[in-house]
Amino acid sequence: ITTAHLFTKATMVFTPLKNIFGGNKKDDKKMAKVPESVLKKQATQAKIADQAKQASYEAKQKKRQDKKDAIAAAEKYAAEYKAADEAAIANRREAKAQGGFYVPAQPKVALVIRIRGTIGVSPKAKKIMQLFRLRQIHNASFVKLNESTVRMLRLIEPYVTYGYPTRSTIEKLILKRGFGKLNKQRIPIADNSVIEEGVGSVGIKCCADLIHEICTVGPHFKEANNFLWPFKLTSPRGGFSNKTKLVHFLEGGEAGNRGEEINKLVKRMI
């Protein structure tokens, strides 16, 4: 008997013992079953992961498209503003050439700033300032000019100052001090998504749309103005004079209508 024969017999003896004592791991793996609950959980997690991946992809695509739309809107409005400015210059030159004067259109929007506190305010004036959302000193808001609002402004002239803001002033106010109202909360306008969530239903989806609607007093001015939280301005650099604060602007004071000079005041208060 050779050594090979002895090795073969020993292998034949030990192989059944190995099978008896659980040495065949491949068969054990085939026999083991994954619980149904584990399979369901794995399927649910895979489905949630796919949905999250799809939502992330759609959000990226939407953000990219919104950015393109905002750039296109800004370019369209810039061209519109440029054409309006050129038309005004041409009209002035034509009027001057004919020996006349060019009278621009009446302003459609005013910026109202509260400059006095609550002491000594009459109930009627207090109510009007509440309607204009001027509840604190140095609060500012836009007001659409018509016959009724002009009368209301005259009644509260001792407590506020107002004027006609330029497009640049409106843009600076919204970009630097702009806050939106979402779910009755004061949310900073740090992204166009805030504007779209607030007034996207009326076609205002970016900051350029909002500025254009306020400047031109468009059909959705009310929704745009109500979306904007009243601006909280600081005390003007150099301050107000205590002696002239209660005097009308035309008499050398600070209160009342100051026309285009409101832009210089806002520049000191931003």
Structure report:
This protein is an alpha+beta fold and 270 residues long. Helix content is 55%, strand content 10%. It has 10 helices and 7 strands. The chain has a 5-stranded mixed β-sheet. A two-stranded antiparallel sheet has the order 4-5. The chain is extended, with a radius of gyration of 36 Å. It starts with a helix and ends with a helix. The mean pLDDT is 87.
Task: Describe the structure in brief.
With 270 residues, this protein is α+β, with helices and mostly antiparallel strands. The chain is 55% helix and 10% strand. The protein is extended and about 95 Å long.
Key descriptive features of the protein:
two-stranded antiparallel sheet; 10 helices; 270 residues; five-stranded mixed beta sheet; alpha+beta; extended
Give the overall shape: extended
Rg (C-alpha, Å): 36 Å
User: Numbering strands along the chain, what is their spatial order in the largest sheet?
Assistant: 6-2-1-3-7
Number of helices: 10
Q: Please give the share of residues in helix.
A: 55-70%
SS-based class: alpha+beta
Q: List the uncertain runs.
A: none
In N-to-C order, the SSE pattern is: HHHEHEHEHEEHHHEEH
Main pleated sheet: 5 strands, mixed
Strand content: 5-15%
What is the count of β-strands? 7
Mean pLDDT: 87
Distance between the termini: 107 Å
Helix and strand arrangement:
Layout: H1 3-20, H2 25-31, H3 36-97, E1 109-114, H4 123-131, E2 139-144, H5 147-155, E3 160-163, H6 167-177, E4 179-182, E5 185-188, H7 192-199, H8 207-216, H9 221-227, E6 231-232, E7 256-257, H10 262-269
Parallel strand pairs: 3-7
Antiparallel strand pairs: 1-2, 1-3, 2-6, 4-5
